[in-house]
Amino acid sequence: MRTAIEITGVSRRYRSMTALANVSLSLKKDVIHGLLGRNGAGKTTLMSIATAQDWPSEGEVRILGMRPHENEQALPKICFVREEQRYIDDALAKHAFSAAAQAFPRWDAELATQLAREFRVPEKTRIKKMSRGQRSAVGVIIGIASRAEVTFFDEPYMGLDAVARQLFYDRLLQDYAAHPRTVVISSHLIDEIAHLIENVVVIDQGQILLQEPVEQLRDRAVTLVGRADAVAEIAGTREVLHHEAMGRIVRTTVLGALDHADRRALDERGVEIVPVSLQQLVVRLTARHGTSDQTTMELSEEVSR
Ligand SMILES: Nc1ncnc2c1ncn2[C@@H]1O[C@H](COP(=O)(O)OP(=O)(O)OP(=O)(O)O)[C@@H](O)[C@H]1O
User: Fold this and answer.
1) CA–CA distance from 12 to each of 50, 85, 203, 278 (Å)?
2) Among 7, 16, 43, which residue has the most ligand 1 atoms within 8 Å of its CB, making it the best to mutate?
3) Which of 51-55, 152-156, 300-304 shows the lowest mean pLDDT across its residues?
4) Fewer beta carbons within 10 angstroms: which end of the chain, N or C?
């Protein structure tokens, strides 16, 4: 089976608020996926439903072919690391690790101990008394050492310093290479996780804006920097995502890959081609989605044209 996570027509409403609107998503097995989107886009809601911690108002979820809700067979295969993880009162890190050992059959206790040392998780401090970063580290360790077949990290880096975040990315990749599994990470630090993820899902206002392999997405847009008339000549026929003028020089971000002839024409006119980072692309696409009346489908089609 190549699909690990299948979400079909899932909606989640809170009274008048629609957090997810008819979301369908199919995520491949043994791939690291990035779930990206602005505050309130629906990332946590989607992850909570996929991990059976919340129920959809409509629609269906399948994890490894199984319905996860109240399913004793499915749940040991699913790990959800979230910022506001609750632990048993007065628990130390080792207690949280023992509980994880019970919950996840592939738990690696040695790895957890090693990671606890590397993240400098204090042994004798109760989790509720730990600093925010230390608490996040406990969650991250559980996420990695559980080796659950499907692991969700919801903004796992909150409070982690730059060194600890790098350690998280390195250790996750290392362990994933040795023990492939399906990972979904939500993050606002898009460029930080760009090298980690293979597939990108962008969600905005409860709708999936796009789902695409990172490599493909990188070629989707470029920024052209040069004289306004020269840039306009090439940009004119394309979808403009962003435009800035600095005197006679403009920076225009356009959708669509450049072919050989475009590159030659730009070169002849002294126009510089600057790659667009994943973060910039996601920011531009979501900003555009928020201000336009286009449907998700239209925008996705545009992006993939
Ligand atoms: N229990 C709740 N009751 C009412 N509204 C809720 C509830 N939980 C989430 N929402 C709303 O649903 C929407 C999606 O929230 P969600 O937490 O999934 O967003 P998110 O993408 O994870 O955001 P962030 O990046 O800020 O964590 C938001 O508008 C939020 O206010």
Assistant:
1) 12, 21, 14, 28
2) 43
3) 300-304
4) N
| Least confident among 167-181, 272-286, 287-301 | 287-301
Residue 23 has pLDDT above 50, yes or no: yes
* Phi/psi-derived region of residue 241, left when phi > 0, alpha when psi is between -120 and 50, beta in every other case: alpha
Phi/psi region, residue 22 (left: phi>0; alpha: psi -120 to 50; beta: rest), is left
User: How many Cβ atoms are within 10 Å of 275's Cβ, its own excluded?
Assistant: 12
In Å, how far from its chain's centre is CA 35?
A: 3
Q: Nearest-5° angle of CA 240, CA 246, CA 250?
A: 35
pTM over 0.90: no
pLDDT band at 299 (very low <50, low <70, confident <90, very high): very low
Which residue has a Cα nearest atom 29 of ligand 1? 40
Q: How far does residue 197's CA lie from ligand 1's centre (Å)?
A: 24
CA 45 to ligand 1 centroid distance, Å: 6
Look at phi and psi of residue 116 and say left if phi exceeds 0, alpha if psi is from -120 to 50, else beta.
alpha
- Could you give the strand order of the β-sheet that contains 32-36, starting from the edge strand earlier in sequence? 78-81, 150-154, 182-186, 32-36, 199-204, 207-213
